[in-house]
Amino acid sequence: MTDADQAREQIREYAVEAALDKLDLDTKARLLSGQDMWSLPAIPEIGLKSLVMSDGPIGVRGVRWTADDPSIALPSPTGLAAAWDPELARRAGRLLAQEARRKGVHVLLAPTVNLHRSPLGGRHFECYSEDPYLTGAVGSGYVNGVQDGGVGTTVKHFVGNDAETERFTVDSVIAPRPLREVYLAPFEAIVANAHPWGIMTAYNRVNGTTMTEHQYLVNEVLRAEWGFDGYNVSDWMAARSTTGDILGGLDVAMPGPQTVYGPALAEAVRAGEVPESAVDTAVRNVLRLAARVGALEGAPAVVEEAPAPIDGQALARELAARGFVLVRNEAVADGSAALPLDAAAGGTVALLGAAARDARVLGGGSAVVFPERIVSPLDGLTSALRDRSGASLTYTIGADPSEELTPADKGFELRAVCRDASGAVVGEGTLPSGQVQWIGDDLPAGASYETMASIEVTGTFLPRENGEHAFGTRGLGAFTLAVGGETVWEGVQEMGNEADPFEAFFGAPSERARVTLTEGEPVEVSLTFQVPDVTALPLKAIMFSLLHLGPQREADELIAEAVEAARAADTAIVVVATTERVESEGFDRKDLALPGRQDDLVRAVAAVNPHTVVVVNAGSPVELPWRDEVAAVLLTWFPGQEGGAALADVLLGDTEPGGRLPTTWPARFADAPVTEVVPTEGRLEYGEGLFIGYRAYEARSIRPAFPFGHGLGYTDWAYESLEATAETVRVRLTNTGARPGREVVQVYLAPVDDGVERPASWLAAFAGVEAGPGESVETEIALPARAFEIWDEEARGWQRIGGTYEVRASHSHGDTRLTATLDLA
Ligand code: BGC
Known about the structure:
Layout (H helix, E strand, L loop, with lengths): L2 H19 L3 H7 L21 E2 L22 H6 L3 H17 L4 E2 L23 H17 L3 E2 L1 E4 L12 E3 L2 H8 L1 H10 L3 E4 L3 E2 L2 E2 L4 H11 L5 E4 L7 H6 L15 H8 L5 H18 L18 H12 L1 E5 L18 E5 L1 H4 L19 H12 L3 E5 L9 E2 L4 E8 L5 E7 L3 E5 L14 E8 L5 E8 L2 E7 L2 E8 L9 H4 L3 E8 L5 E8 L10 E9 L5 H13 L3 E7 L20 H11 L3 E6 L14 E4 L7 H9 L31 E3 L8 H6 L17 E8 L3 E8 L5 E11 L10 E10 L4 E7 L6 E4 L4 E4 L2 E10 L2 E10 L1
Parallel strand pairs: 1-2, 2-3, 4-6, 5-7, 5-27, 6-9, 11-12, 11-24, 24-25, 25-26
Antiparallel strand pairs: 7-8, 10-26, 13-23, 14-15, 14-17, 16-23, 17-22, 18-21, 18-23, 19-20, 19-22, 28-29, 29-32, 30-31, 30-35, 33-34, 35-36
Helix pairs in contact: 1-11, 2-10, 2-11, 4-5, 4-12, 5-7, 12-18, 14-18, 16-17
The site of beta-D-glucopyranose has 6 residues, from loops.
């Protein structure tokens, strides 16, 4: 911080104290409680604006959950981490700050820095890595970037929220060393390196205590030990105890308007259960946030002028390609590598796979944003081949993994009509899809929770195909479904066993009727929902969906068609993907298999076309049992809105695939270090201790499909020299290929016979280098002191472990290029 920055920080602190002095107990308690789904109340008397928060992390959804309010959609966090480039993450953060400012958002509810403990974790795609150091480095870049734009961040979910099953109550049982060395480590690094203005405490418990009430981890570790001075907000609906939460260091209970704070908190102070000073501490943290983001009069915002504009589409495209990981690239008939494709050669490309046309650009749950446009692989390749090469493109579905109904979308034109008990219309609005997601006051003009008795989703559907179309519902309550003017289903959906309050959001779709329709002949559709009485609920919301699934063709027939297309083509590109029902917040995965018949499709195509390139569109690891049978495999994660354009850039060789794996890809699910995420009697034991990710594969001598850090670019690198001290590592390398490229030099430490219980090796540092063909570069990489430390449980402190270490300069965890020996005193 410069002197000028420090002086401004001081002025902000004065403004905060002055504002705090003017507030009475009731107003203070009110400020700590959400006024609605996304904001805190304004307090005009002290010049405080309403602070607005929004998800995060790949875009800024804003306060409305609808495609009517679009946001840029960047690649999934796994893709961002795969770039191994904190500076790039910082640029992503700056773009998101720009989006937040545009939408009047002061605080982004991101980044998610829980770890890839098990590949089953439903929010795996939303977290960065299995490695705490890489997670901390990328997370620091991201936080710095968002805050460079004057917008706050909320590092989440503090801590131990590494899976979704029973997430509201699960007790993550984590021993002190893994807690410190693995799960807390990214949070600690981000607090130290990026000074985040906020943190979100998780739903779960850690070692018996609910995280929103965790005095030790919040007050002692996060605040006293690490010096965190931002605000602490509960995950949505996580705050459950007035006294427990305020004494546990929770500043803000979200969402509102009814929370355990507000009047209940003022009451607890009056009853002598809570000292008023605890309320003051929380208010101070909130006012400090307001001062930083420019929402408190008299306090200079950290960033007063909006930074220079950033081209969102261009950055989204660059980020996507930088995160794509080329895990396999074999030579094909002419002796050259399968990728990049020879754009000048002409010929035919057969593009296959449902996700090539209907791209999966983001993962499900609160990470969902609505981009203004989506470039699918089909869109991206069609225009690139047209503009940049003589090749022709054919497209065939091949296999469709979405066997489940999804919100009515393509071909539907829908609106919502709200009626009162007498049937009179009280409100109306257009709907971008069949999904109704109205939260708080975000209702169609005229409608209110008090007057609405029913909501009809109604309009027309123009079928894209002949045959049996399935219609269905998601949500809880009474429905009537009509197609073509006829009632095809009427019934009530009760709450299932899994009482997740977001059931209507994440719950399984239900098929209700099948109707035979003709391509191009429009038909009327209507789904009427009886509105339950939500007026007494702490959070008023209406969520339900009209679902649809087009005619399903015989899987064998689809594969046979794809095989014909592949046989006739010079190159086959198969896009395989997970679905919304596989990767989402709200539930965990059951296995790592690609859904539907996609594995069969790849095998059948590879059998007839030796130049088969498989593009994997998944946010987390999936099994690739055919990986040795195809010429190339490119992992694209959830690539964000510009994914298809970036894919064309990479396939045609305009851009190098820049990614390295941020997480190990197992050959088969059974090899994953942690294969169970279902708690036993409410407890989830982190029994593997320090051994997650590559640390576990190494300890158990299991060879993964692709190791941590692996990724091929379009050039080769010769590592020439390595010098190591306890502080720095100096590596010299040469680009020996024919193209410019970027290499991620990964530094691992491996202790030699030290008798201390710890992994055989770990990532200590890394750096990206760039060089043209034939050029050499030298990089000096700082080794953080923490890389040599372990947490001493008895002394409750960090202990430096001296002795002999092998220092490795590596292309990946499985590909060490040079080693040096270091004796640490
Ligand atoms: C998620 C948070 C998110 C919040 C608000 C919760 O269900 O766990 O990550 O920020 O909802 O959407």
